[in-house]
């Protein structure tokens, strides 16, 4: 139960801090500030709840851990529930704080009127590739031969860099729960486009995890 509570809290914090930076502070901190908010949120949660649950806070990361043989299907399913509920709760608190001043809730998307206006092909490719790279960093930095104590820092930096590159493309998901929470409350186009932020990160997570599963990237 402690692992499930930890995953709920971690995903709640990720959405509240990251999307909160975009909604409440985006005009002041800009793209770099939003990227750092997501990255720093992961660093903080990695050291706060990492010893409890591993700080997945992301269904794609849990899927990668399962494919790599690091967790069971049952545990993955429980993590997913906690992550989706936590993300929705985080988005709900952000909506409560922002109220009528919110222009969305930091939801992901693509196409005309969103970010840089990138098309669905670019959005899909970005989410697949970046999720694969993200889980490679996660699985490598948490392996038994990795430098102890530095996983959270490496993972947070990776997420920040991904956001620096991709906020204009999709707002950056690489995390179906992070996309689900804001979208389900905003509705409309955010929900209509949600499929991409489930499918593409799942593909990327599997691709990255298979490199470890078949020892293409070998961790002791």
From TrEMBL:
Gene3D superfamilies xrefs: Glycerol uptake facilitator protein
SUPFAM superfamilies: Aquaporin-like (SSF81338)
Keywords, comma-separated and alphabetical: Cell membrane, Membrane, Transmembrane, Transmembrane helix, Transport
Keyword Transmembrane helix: yes
Membrane topology term: Multi-pass membrane protein
Intracellular or extracellular location(s): Cell membrane
Domain of life of the organism encoding this protein: Bacteria
InterPro entries on file: Aquaporin-like, Aquaporin_transptr, MIP, MIP_CS
Ranges annotated as spanning the membrane: 35-57, 78-98, 118-139, 151-174, 194-214
PROSITE patterns in the cross-refs: MIP, PROKAR_LIPOPROTEIN
Leader sequence segment: none
Primary location: membrane
Family named by the database record: Belongs to the MIP/aquaporin (TC 1.A.8) family.
Name the record gives this protein: Aquaporin Z
Annotated source species: Caulobacter rhizosphaerae
């Amino acid at each position: 139960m402690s692992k499930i509570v930890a995953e709920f809290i971690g995903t709640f914090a990720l959405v509240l801090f990251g999307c909160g930076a975009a909604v409440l502070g985006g005009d002041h901190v800009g793209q770099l500030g939003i990227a750092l908010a997501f990255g720093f949120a992961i660093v903080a949660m990695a050291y706060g709840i990492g010893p409890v649950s591993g700080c997945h806070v992301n269904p794609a990361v849990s899927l990668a851990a399962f494919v790599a043989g690091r967790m069971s299907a049952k545990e993955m399913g429980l993590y997913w529930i906690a992550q989706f509920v936590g993300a929705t709760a985080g988005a709900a608190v952000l909506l409560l704080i922002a109220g009528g001043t919110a222009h969305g809730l930091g939801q992901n998307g693509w196409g005309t009127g969103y970010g840089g206006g990138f098309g669905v092909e670019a959005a899909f490719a970005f989410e697949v590739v970046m999720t694969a790279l993200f889980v490679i960093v996660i699985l490598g930095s948490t392996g038994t031969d990795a430098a102890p104590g530095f996983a959270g820092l490496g993972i947070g930096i990776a997420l920040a860099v991904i956001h620096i590159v991709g906020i204009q493309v999709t707002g950056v998901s690489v995390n179906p729960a992070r996309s689900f929470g804001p979208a389900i409350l905003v509705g409309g186009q955010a929900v209509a486009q949600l499929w991409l932020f489930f499918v593409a990160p799942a593909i990327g997570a599997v691709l990255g995890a298979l490199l470890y599963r078949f020892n293409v990237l070998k961790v002791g």
